[in-house]
Amino acid sequence: MSPRPLALAATLASTALLAACGGSGDTSGSDGSRHSAVAAFYPLAWVTEEVAGDDWDVTNLTAPGSEPHDLSLDIRQTAAVAEADLVVLEHDFQPAVDATVEANAGDAAVLDAAEVLELMPTSDHDHAHDEAGHDHGELDPHFWLDPLLMADLGDAVAEQLAEIDPDRAATYRDNAAALREELEALDQQYADGLAECARTTTVVSHEAFSYLSRYGLQFEAIAGLSPDAEPTPADLARLQELIREEGITTVFSERLASSKMADSLAGDLGLATAVLDPIEGLSDDTADDDYLSLMGHNLEALRKANGCR
Question: Fewer CB within 10 Å: C terminus or N terminus of the chain?
Fold first, then answer.
């Protein structure tokens, strides 16, 4: 498979620079048998890797430890987009990715999770908060916290890979079916594990966990959809009253974002703090984990905080 012509002269120059420096934007094998995919951030990359298998090279544009919302693409990442057979993204979640793909994806197939999945709406409260940070519009982008939506994404990836590489279509569909079995088992673990809890209201640092509400939990966020949004004094007062009324014992912070707001709220009320991972990316602490194990850790944390049997 030969590298695609790049869409922009700037990217052509970038590729030349990479070659001169010994970089490798082209991930296809010398025998032409390999394909390359680019995924915008970790959950998309994980699904793509699981479905594509060993015959594809999958590049995650968001490096471990980085906040996906704040991503800006460098020369190497732009070249990877330009030379990919498939790009998997979620429109409006990472504006820099959207712009780079629009300008440089060339003939690559583009799979937009926001188009193939049914995203849940945000509340007016959440949307108003997020105007201080990243505006995701009327839909909550954090679908990957619902295992069944991740399974749906796996099916969509399999169909897209089958179009690109028909000879391995059956393999991709089999991989997606196996992934669905794992994700349906995870879904059942959540349903069972959160079925009987002393409390259902859960205080989190930002509005990233609403997709878990179908297991009977109610999430109250300190900030809005953006991890760097700021709560108002009225929001904090409302949360403090709710915490006292509901007997909440724990305030959750998260990885890849500051824990300052959660620590402050918990400290004011004498509550415990714990980590609930939105699984937007890996970190140094979770380098040996994957989506399934991180979701398992989250389930354990939720059960402990909410007194589940």
Answer: C
With residue 128 as reference, give the H or E element that holds it. Answer: helix 124-130
> What are the structural domains of the chain?
1-309 (3.40.50.1980)
| Ordered per-residue pLDDT tens for the chain, 309 residues | 434 443 433 443 333 333 333 333 333 433 455 899 999 999 999 999 999 999 899 999 999 998 898 899 999 999 999 999 999 999 999 999 999 999 999 899 999 999 999 999 986 444 434 434 444 568 999 999 999 999 999 999 999 999 999 999 999 999 999 999 999 999 999 999 999 999 999 999 988 999 999 999 999 999 765 556 678 888 889 999 999 999 999 999 998 788 898 999 999 999 999 999 999 999 999 999 999 999 999 999 999 999 999
| pTM for the model | 0.84
Rg (CA), the chain: 21
Q: Which residue has the tokens 């908060």?
A: 129
With H, G, I as helix, E, B as strand and everything else as coil, classify residue 74. coil
